[in-house]
Design brief:
The chain is an alpha/beta fold. Helices cover 42% and strands 11% of the residues. Strands 3-2-1-6-4-7-5 form a seven-stranded parallel β-sheet. The radius of gyration is 22 Å and the shape is elongated. The termini are far apart.
Length: 268
């Protein structure tokens, strides 16, 4: 697409309305991106659609190099303000809703952008504020690992022709950015929004739960990872709200306290 400045006045892009808060609070997270041209193209489409938060996990190139800047054109500030992380969990800190992108051959439950993104950006129930949310995109060559996917609550796939289903990373991000921007023109979903806990709160609960289950012998060290994966999936399927997760954490704390402070039985 030609630069806006070089377009005939009748064919210039129409500016979108005042930007919705959910656009500026949605993180685009790239796992180990290898191509500066892809990163630059992603920065450009993000600015086109009103998104500003680009997070890179262990990028394999300089996201602010000349090649990336050339592709970003007038979106260099998104490259300059992109946050670099050493882990996906760090990039997700503070996020309340997370979706990860997958191909159609996954055995995880999948939805299209138009099915998943309204959930991702729906306002919180009590404050009516837009949530801090994220879309995770995998490596150009082999996508996301199971460990990456375990941090997401829902999974998104982009429908494509079976004759050539593979999308370039920048194309996939571009489609999702467009669908996010287009939500401004859609009536709000009748689905009741949730007060979703942040990824930090959920992960801390799961870590505390694993420690406790190891202490009481429910988990064995050699099988703990596999069994915790099942418990993680169960928790995600329940979609607990923030007060409900706080209740679960309270039960866990009280149980651990009761075990530590139980009376010593009298000696015979």
């Amino acid at each position: 697409m030609a630069d806006r400045e070089n377009l005939d006045p009748e064919t210039r892009l129409t500016p979108i309305a005042p930007l919705s808060t959910y656009l500026t609070q949605t993180r685009i997270i790239l796992i180990e991106p290898a191509g500066p041209r892809n990163i630059g193209s992603i920065a450009r489409i993000m600015k086109n659609m009103g998104l500003t938060q680009l997070h890179l996990v262990n990028p394999e190139c300089d996201p602010a190099c000349d090649e990336a800047r050339h592709m970003a054109v007038h979106a260099a500030e998104i490259l300059e303000t992109a946050q670099i992380h050493t882990s996906l969990l760090s990039a997700l800190t503070g996020c309340q809703r997370i979706t990860a992108t997958l191909g159609r051959d996954s055995d995880r439950p999948l939805g299209t952008p138009r099915q998943i993104l309204p959930w991702l950006t729906a306002p919180n129930r009590t404050t009516r504020d837009a949530p801090d949310c994220a879309i995770i995109f995998g490596r150009e060559d082999h996508g996301l690992s199971n460990q990456d996917l375990d941090l997401a609550a829902r999974y998104l796939t982009i429908p494509t022709s079976p004759e050539y289903p593979s999308l370039n990373l920048a194309q996939a991000v571009g489609i999702c950015c467009y669908e996010l921007q287009a939500l401004q023109e859609i009536e709000p979903s009748p689905e009741t929004p949730h007060d979703t806990p942040t990824i930090d709160q959920t992960e801390q609960y799961l870590q505390d739960l694993e420690t406790h289950l190891l202490e009481i012998g429910f988990l064995a060290p050699h099988t703990a990872t596999a069994r915790m994966a099942k418990l993680r999936q169960l928790l995600k399927q329940a979609h607990p709200e923030t007060p409900e997760l706080a209740m679960l954490r309270g039960i866990l704390r009280q149980t651990r306290w009761a075990i530590a402070n139980r009376p010593t039985p009298p000696s015979a």
